Every structure is written in structure tokens, then in C-alpha cells.
Amino acid sequence: MINSPDPASAPLVTPPADAGKDADLATLLAEPAAPIWYRRPALWAGMLVLALTAGGLWWWQARRTANAAPNYSTQTVARGNLTLTVTANGTLQPTRSTSIGSELSGTVLKVNVDVNDLIHKGQVLVELDTAKLRDQILRARAALAAATAKVAQTLATVKEARAGLARLDEVARISAGQLPAGTELDTAHAALERATADAASARAGVNDAQAALALDEINLSKASIRAPSDGVVLTRSVDPGNAVAASLQAVTLFTVAEDLVRLRLWVYVDEADVGSVAKGQDAHFTVSAYPSRQYPARITRVGFGSTITDNVVTYLTYLDVDNSDLSLRPGMTATATITANQRNDVLLVPNSALRFTPTTAGDGQAAAKGGIVASLIPSRPRTNTRKSAAAGASTAAARQVWVLRDEVAVPLAVTPGISDGRMTEITGGELEVGMLVITDQKTAAAK
């Protein structure tokens, strides 16, 4: 058995002197030692890449959230004045116009006035040829004279018959009824009665002749057509030499306006607006001749009878107009604006706010808030179970508006009043001055 030498008993060997120099050279030529883990460059590079990726994702998510959020157009609630107006079209007419015609047939001899002439009551406007009428008057006077002579003749006959009857009565008295015969007395009585009847007929003939003469004289006076009142001639449809044929109705020769200082505007109000129009309301109107000038007017009558034109029902309404400067003329077309109602110092909101309803932007916002994973996971269909804020309002006309609070659309119940087509009066509800009502919504396009 071979025994290994004891290390303790082994003799110490001393290295040579140049051994230290060899060890230092080996150390310089060997590989460097491994650095500590937190000093490794790859770790910091990886962390930098992760940070940049996270920052990019955060920026992209923020942009997406901003793009998905709705952008509202708002208007501040304020108090003001509101006027409800009704617009209607019509034409200007004289307050009273007269059509002057002729009751007689004949030939026009002379025309004394023309269009736009001022005329006065009783003034002769037209003269007809009166030759035939004068001849008729002469014949009527002759007939009257004959009837008068007939009366004198019958009266003489009556006187003669009465005298004959008186003589016979005297004879009968003297002869104690012996003479004359009874038939002779009856004949005398009948002759007297006949003469009396002839006298009455003659008197009636005189009255008839007098009436015929008076009629012919009236016709002669009507041959000179006179103005019934003061006024202005608007139209003329007759010239000297024209033949006038009056048959069943009088022929219109002139149209005369009694007074152009006061005119009347005839407008036709639509059936949808007639409930807001009443007698005594103020209005103003314009005409094409003076488009920049507004004329005042006042309603004097709203017709109950309807007028149907192209299946549109309208009601004729009269407005009195002051035309002291005579700038307006009958027949002009006018556009009238009637002040149907007026409210002062009331709460006003634009009509677009009453029509506004926000779109369903909540899904996009929820997806944006949930992050990328939430946006990739399909969501369950959502049902709109929100109850209208105006559902519990006290009046049937209650509605709602949406106001902006902390960038969130909130509904408020309101009760609207009258509207002028642009602004609406708010008569009740939760709306207050200074609130921002939403009038429109715009969602930015996603990028």
C-alpha cells in the first residue's frame, strides 16, 4: 500500500523570483469581470423603449378620447322682448269706391272728366244725346193736355145729366107721379151715373199723363250723369260718340274713389294664423314702390267667411291706412306684418334649443375611458331607458331643453310660450338666466 505524503510534513517550495511578474502579465491579458446588473446598457435601452411605447399609447388614447367627446354649441339664456307677428299679402283699396253707370240707353254726347280728376257731388260727368227724350216729353205733355180736356168734357156731361134728371123729378112732383114714365126716370139716373164714371176715368187719365210726363222728365235729367259724392276718378270706360245700351244692369262708365286720404288694405290671413289676429291690432306694411318705408295700419275687421285658393284657406282682413301724403295708390300690392302678441322682459331661448336632442355619444366615451382593451371587446346593446325630463310637467305643452353643466349635457323641463319663429318665451320650468342651453352638437372625426 502506497501512502501519500502528508501535506503538513511536505517541505515548503519557494517559487522563483520571476513568478510574480508572470502572474501580473496574465491578469492584464485576461477577460474583464462581468458588470453589476443595474449597470447593464441593454436593460436601460429596453426600459426606454417601453417608456416611449407607453407614452405613445397614452397620447393616442387621449386623442381618441378627445375626438370621441361631443362638442356642443351653446347660447346663454337671457331676458328680452318678444313680438309674435303674422305676415299676410294683399292689395290697397279705397275705403269706398263707386261705380257710376247709366240707366238709359243712348249716345254719349259729351264727357266732362278724365282719370285722376277731382270731382264734386252733383258735378255733370257725362251727357247723353237728349233729342229723343225731349220729343217724348212733348208727346207726354200733349197727352196730359188731352186728358185734361177729357176731364172738362166729362164734367160737362155730368152737369147735363144731373140737370136732366132734376127736370124730370120736378115734373113728377108737379104731376103727383103721373109723369114722366118710370123708365124715363131710370134712364136719366143711368145717364148721370155714366157721366160721373166718365169723369172719374178722365181724372185717372190725367194722372196717368202726368206720371208719363214726370217719367220722361226724370229720364231727361238722367241723361246728364252726375257725381254722387266728392272723390277722384280712378277709371273711365266711355268716350264721346259711344253707344250706351242699358239692359238688365247699369253700364259702368266710371269708377270713383270717395277719399284717397284714407285707404283700406285687404289682406288674406292663413287659417293657421287667423286665431292670433283680432280687431284693433297694430300692423305695418311695405309696398314695392317704397321698399324701405313702413306704413302703419290697424285692423278694423277679420272676416268669418273663408276664401279657398289652390286648396289654401284664407280669411279676408281689413286694415285702415292713413294716406295723407297720397303716396299710396289703390291696387298696390302690399306685404303686411301684424303684431299679434308682444311680451316684454321675458325669458327667451332659441327655437333650436327646444328642438335639440343629444346623440348617443356615451358609448364612445366609455370605450375611450376603458382603454384599448375595452374598445376591442364588443359591448352589449344598450337601450335608452332615460325618462324625459318634461314627462312630469304640469301642462300638456311642457317640453325640455338641454343645458351644459361641467361639460355634460343635462336636461331641464320648461314650459314654452309664444314664439316668433326664432326665439321662444319660457313661461315656466327650471331654466334660469345665465344658463348655457345647447343648440347643436358636433362630434370631431376620429383620427
Number of strands: 19
How is the main sheet built? 6 strands, antiparallel, barrel
**Count, helices:** 6
Return Rg in Å.
58 Å
Q: How would the global form be characterised?
A: rod-shaped
Widest β-sheet, arrangement of strands? 2-11-14-13-12-15
Features of this protein?
alpha+beta, 32% helix, 36% strand, disordered N terminus
Question: What's the gist of this structure?
Answer:
By secondary structure, the protein is of the alpha+beta class.
What does this structure look like?
The protein is of the alpha+beta class and 447 residues long. It has a domain at 103-236. It contains 6 helices and 19 strands. The protein has helices at residues 19-29, 41-68, 131-174, 182-222, 351-355, 362-376; strands at 70-76, 78-94, 97-102, 106-111, 118-119, 124-128, 224-226, 231-236, 243-244, 251-257, 262-270, 282-287, 290-309, 312-322, 333-350, 399-405, 408-419, 423-429, 436-443. A 6-stranded antiparallel β-barrel has the order 2-11-14-13-12-15. The chain has a 4-stranded antiparallel beta sheet with strand order 3-10-8-5, with no helix packed on it. Strand 12 and strand 13 (290-309) form a beta hairpin. The two termini are 91 Å apart. Mean pLDDT is 82; it is low at 1-14, 361-379 and 381-396.
Which helices and strands appear, and what pairs or packs with what?
Layout: H1 19-29, H2 41-68, E1 70-76, E2 78-94, E3 97-102, E4 106-111, E5 118-119, E6 124-128, H3 131-174, H4 182-222, E7 224-226, E8 231-236, E9 243-244, E10 251-257, E11 262-270, E12 282-287, E13 290-309, E14 312-322, E15 333-350, H5 351-355, H6 362-376, E16 399-405, E17 408-419, E18 423-429, E19 436-443
Antiparallel strand pairs: 1-19, 2-11, 2-15, 3-10, 4-6, 4-9, 5-8, 6-7, 8-10, 11-14, 12-13, 12-15, 13-14, 15-18, 16-17, 17-18
Helix pairs in contact: 2-6, 3-4
